[in-house]
């Protein structure tokens, strides 16, 4: 409870600062410094790219999906063999029928029995997700990285407070990015835009969405209900009702399901806590131990299944934590959802391997998405950086959110314990 | 041909005739946006709407062999449309008449001034406390991503301060109307064509991971030629959501699968397959397949009567569902043959015509299809894509399976509707809608 209170009170003070920020041409106070920082970072990044030989491919790469099913999976129009998809995307080979079966099973578990269409849905997801990323220049310059971070931080708090689905947050921030890209926003309205996007995301994802009055209250009644509803119409007309988004969380779940963990365990530890958090999650009854303590306790008392369940839950939560940290970074907007998911899971594995011995066994994760190592390393580096800064920075809603025992306290547990490893990773990345 | 003749005739009407038409003005308020009529039209023919009025006054010619596909050629002749009108503004469309009122929207028939096409305009009021209704948001964002010949096409979205309008392509009737116009069951060939299109549309949306979730004859639009289009995606969703958002109307209860009725929330594409199966039987026999009377329990017992009550063997996990009752264990668990249930019912009123109506058992492959679709255990139900391969559709040309998504099946030569056995509006089948709705003739 204490944690929750702090999350709630950690408070919208920063947001009110944001509202007071001057309009239009007069840049907000912190802006200059921030710009300088940003520029410096950019330069640094450029150098890094040059030294590591990381280049962003600019040409058109085709996304080839090959299904090698004996029977020929797809009967309909999207033919059985190489489906070429334009735009910036990846190579994907579902090479062995074993992997394909795994994928089908995983899809069935994640997305509720759609194995009949698993391959096609998956290839559609891959196609769509390639369009779900932005350029750094898409955010108008007057919305600085710091302002954006504050806003996202506030959204995370509201999202946590209203106990919404995880997907809602990702969708809300995606919508916000889209709106910032297409519209000419005034800084004092920034929070209103954030709240509106959350409202819209709720209408898309949730069963019951919050009253507009609740959201207005969260904004300390800076804006009234009419303003919120007006902004809603504005956002909708700007986005032209194109609100579909491929969730990085879906990719993460798929990755975990197709991994070496036995599927049943994975299903139990990932899906059940979400559906009925009170009963099905044994970890909640355990008071806020650090994760290590719980794990060592389990070695003796719990059955191996239980232990593996916890492993999966821990790795899942840690990966989610890294991914959620990325929501705050405006640099991370350039990554595709699947890329984020794979990098998050990779990093989570590395950290857990580093901090605990028991994790060597379950390190295998199928490569469903073929991102090059450099691409993944770049994301991982950003994630590591963010998680090192998380506990000390001003915007630490995510850090607090993931310090709860219901989320395996990953932010205070493995992420802190592994901080040294993380910093060495960052160090290594910046000097190699 | 009469079509082409009719229009220039009206245009060249002498002035005194036109003035007489003026005096006969009947309901000018039906045409709402008169102010929007561009100037240059006034010069050659003053008040183009008078010519419409005039056409109404004339004795109506019966056009028995009119070809609905000529519609577009005629609309090209209208000069009041302008090039370069933008999408997304209300002035680009003219309201013609009200078609109906739904739960959260009113539907009008309209005409586009951009390309002269007829449109259906779904006007959603936004005066509620909650802002834009979530159904509208979901429908809009889903339909934006769906382009298929068997899914209704969303032309445009118009947003104003107090309302939100979805502009759809205009489709003349829906399956419910069509069936009430042709009582006693449809022609098996037509059933086959409708069913093929329904499953083709479902296969498409399921492949994109979209569930319709509200299949019923009212939501299946039928055009003159017989194209079937899925409509009303207000409850549709890209992923499953617990059934609270499910419509509580009794009508939809008839097409709801047993797993959802029992309270399962992890349903998937199988949900739509059950509804499609019910619609198949309704088309064949002319009456709803499983008309429950009042509530969920009643509906479920109706299903058990046909399918047999489920038990843990036939349906693992059934007894843990929230609406499951233990007293159902005593009911027989064996499924009856579907043709025995629906093939032999005799209505007293239509007993003579009954003979010529082919029922479920007599149409080859229909029973197989229905029994593959109507399974209590969701995972046993056939997928839409596999269903298209079944024997029932064998008589259709193979080209239908290779059509691109946006091509209608009626573009394949030789595919056309048969005349129905019975028609309430004989002797001019399908003329009824045209004369009532189509003001141009």
TrEMBL record, chain A:
* Assigned keywords, A-Z: Cyclin
State the InterPro entries in the record. Answer: Cyclin, Cyclin-like_dom, Cyclin-like_sf, Cyclin_C-dom, Cyclin_N
Q: Where is the composition biased (Polar residues)?
A: 276-288
Q: Where is this region: Disordered?
A: 276-302
Q: Which residues form the Cyclin-like domain?
A: 153-237, 307-385
What residues does the Cyclin C-terminal domain cover?
A: 246-416
User: Which Pfam families does UniProt cross-reference here?
Assistant: Cyclin_C, Cyclin_N
Domain of life per record: Eukaryota
**Protein family membership:** Belongs to the cyclin family.
Recorded hits in PANTHER family, A to Z, give:
CYCLINS
What is the protein named? Cyclin N-terminal domain-containing protein
TrEMBL record, chain B:
Q: Which PANTHER family match?
A: CELL DIVISION PROTEIN KINASE, CYCLIN-DEPENDENT KINASE 15
One Gene Ontology molecular-function label: cyclin-dependent protein serine/threonine kinase activity
Which Pfam families does UniProt cross-reference here? Pkinase
Q: Which residues bind ATP?
A: 122
State what protein this is by name.
Answer: Protein kinase domain-containing protein
**SUPFAM superfamilies hit by this protein:** Protein kinase-like (PK-like)
| Residue ranges of domain Protein kinase in the record | 93-393
> In which family does this protein belong, per the annotation?
Belongs to the protein kinase superfamily. CMGC Ser/Thr protein kinase family. CDC2/CDKX subfamily.
Q: From which organism does this entry originate?
A: Pleurodeles waltl (Iberian ribbed newt)
